[in-house]
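S.,

Sequence below, as promised.
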Amino acid sequence: AARTMDDVALADLDVGARLGGGATSEVRVAVVRRTGVAYALKAVAKASIVGRAQLERLFREKELLASTADAAVVRLHATLQDEARVYLLLELAAGGELLWHLRRARPRPALPEASVRVVIAQLALPLQRLWERGVLYRDLKPTNVLFDAAGRLKLADFGHAKRVALGERSTSLVGTPHYLAPEAVAGRGHALGAQLWALGVLLFEALAGEPPFAYADCDAAELRRRIEHEPA
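The prediction came back faster than expected:
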């Protein structure tokens, strides 16, 4: 199991620069004063947890991160809360998001082919390991792929991940539209193959600078139709 810090409290942390986030959460650097060690502190607003599905997503992320000991998955060190927020104290991936590296490398091609080969190889194996342990990741995209200080890749944000039995297929449609596999869009059920499809989309994006189905002129429904019916 992942190592945790049961004795850390919010008062022990010096919270600093913002690393990222979305509509309902943000991630900041947090340093434990007594050790000087820096972590990533993910804060989720309790007011945003308005339904059972959102609550289950938060608990699922906590459970999966706490129970997954893998060098390619960000480590959960502690879970904290105050009146307004729930916090996950996570391993700090100091090298930043893959998305940042893709944008920095523009104009296209986004990254050199040699670098892309390393990225894809470092992602394919942990996705397979998770699958063999009964976990579907389900949200592979550049903002969820992080680099540590040594340049090794880490998967982050397990809110859409799901435990599945061997041979089971997931039928729920979650994730980011540009990276959804045709079988997921069609509701036929999806498994490891859909994760590899997302990896292929990421490969294309890393080389070309944008996903293969990046259409500015269509909404999510039209995007899904094109993913399902247009040739890859």
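Helices lie at 52-67, 98-104, 113-132, 182-185, 192-208, 220-229.

Coffee later?
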